[in-house]
User: Which sequence fits this backbone?
């Protein structure tokens, strides 16, 4: 079956612009995670969805970041008024049930560059 | 809160063994190991569960010392394909993983 997919693979934008990053999880996975990864670092947790609801958004750095998952499948991470410090690879992962013992399957990521 | 991985980097000849360590200051539910190649998504290798159950890769083994809150990943008879950055993710809650900074492994022929 298909894995986690993310679009676009690369996004270059100008400081102050709005961007949307999309994640399509593995079919049937109820849990979806967004992470941010900077060069040479491990993934940094942003937000966790269980179904349609954001169960934990404590990792979102500020109110410029927002994510939705309206039908419990595809998720969109939205970043307003982008800043150069937002440049990173944004990874999405999904797991079957969202338990800490469940395997998380990662997408290929979206590389965001803010000029 | 972030787990500490050691070493930060290691260079091996093909066929040599390596051990990568991951330690946490918090009590752990589980430890997850992933490998990431440059420009690619992290790929699942192994999960170690509290209580000793282990699920994952056939050619790579790992240990989990719950009392010490430590895990080690053992790569034996390394192959060129093992090159990449290895991350441990530690589960301190029911769902959230906190990731280490990674160990870069370079395998030379």
Assistant:
């Amino acid at each position: 079956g298909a894995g986690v997919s993310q679009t676009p693979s690369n996004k270059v934008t100008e400081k102050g612009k709005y961007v949307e990053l999309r994640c399509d999880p593995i079919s049937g996975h109820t849990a979806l995670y967004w992470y941010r990864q900077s060069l040479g670092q491990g993934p940094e947790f942003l937000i966790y969805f269980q179904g349609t609801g954001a169960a934990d958004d404590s990792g979102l750095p500020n109110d410029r970041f927002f994510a939705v998952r309206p039908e419990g499948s595809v998720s969109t991470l939205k970043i307003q008024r982008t800043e150069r410090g937002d440049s990173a690879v944004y990874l999405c992962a999904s797991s079957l049930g969202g338990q800490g013992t469940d395997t998380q399957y990662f997408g290929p990521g979206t590389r965001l560059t803010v000029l | 809160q972030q787990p500490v991985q050691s070493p930060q980097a290691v260079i091996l000849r093909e066929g040599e063994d390596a051990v990568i360590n991951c330690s946490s200051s918090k009590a752990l539910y589980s430890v997850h190991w992933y490998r990431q190649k440059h420009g690619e998504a992290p790929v699942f290798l192994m999960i170690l569960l509290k209580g000793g159950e282990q699920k994952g890769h056939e050619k790579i083994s790992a240990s989990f010392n719950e009392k010490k809150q430590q895990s080690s990943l053992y790569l034996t008879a390394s192959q060129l394909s093992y090159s990449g950055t290895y991350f441990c993710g530690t589960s301190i809650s029911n769902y959230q993983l906190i990731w280490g900074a990674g160990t870069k492994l370079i395998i030379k022929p």
Notes: The CA atoms of residues 9 and 31 of chain A lie 22 Å apart. The domain at 5-99 of chain A is CATH 2.60.40.10 (Immunoglobulin-like).
